[in-house]
């Protein structure tokens, strides 16, 4: 397939590489041209100077950028994706966005005769690099079938959740659970440290039991070593949990745990830890 991939961050760079290695004809666009050139040097394919140029003639365009405004900036306008796509093509948004943006994009695509699915991902940088992402998809089943061969190279699982927007709502549930787990780890590890326990031994003792989790296995050691300069940034978690709180408010439901964790992350932002991995949540107790 002729594929365009828009956004070559820590996730998009390897994801687009998996598509190229799978035999698709991939053209990439990145706001920083040097990153796009680096991708071409590593994987082959081509890069384009604008989202429009990357999307022109593409069967499918994948987007993986930062937030709602970033998606709009590459999707709309004379140099945007929608201006380049022809009728019958498909737009796949891998960005974690608001539910409202997914509905907005779908309306814009429908008006232009273009298919759309929202397809946020989970698995972090390691999942992208290993081609093992969990992908939650909202949209028409025929569009999922249209996209599947382009998504499969970097997917561990693909789950069709329902209509457009359900992918983003599912990702919100995902982020709520991650925030809750990391808050539990932060409290538990801090108690272990304050009571004099050997934290590596604690991690080893509990990882194989009911307290085991992806976060414990993949972040526990680095939390102990005070290593946080990698991974999923606090800035992105603040954004994502904000979406969760907004969605809950619309259905008149309270998320007290998520509200608490959201505030702790916002405090960490003010301390200059905004680009650290979300496991830096334990630093809330450094007082």
Describe the structure.
With 287 residues, this protein is α/β, with parallel strands linked by helices. It has two domains: 2-163, NAD(P)-binding Rossmann-like Domain (Rossmann fold); 169-285, N-(1-d-carboxylethyl)-l-norvaline Dehydrogenase, domain 2 (Orthogonal Bundle). 52% of the residues lie in helices and 14% in strands. The strands form two sheets. Strands 3-2-1-4-5-6 form a six-stranded parallel sheet, sandwiched between helices. The protein has a three-stranded mixed sheet with strand order 7-8-9. Helix 9 (166-194) packs across helix 13 and helix 12 packs antiparallel against helix 13 (256-270). It starts with a strand and ends in a 17-residue tail after the last helix.
Features:
three-stranded mixed β-sheet; Rossmann fold; alpha/beta; 287 residues; six-stranded parallel β-sheet; N-(1-d-carboxylethyl)-l-norvaline Dehydrogenase, domain 2
Structure summarized in a few sentences:
With 287 residues, the protein is an alpha/beta fold. Helices cover 52% and strands 14% of the residues.
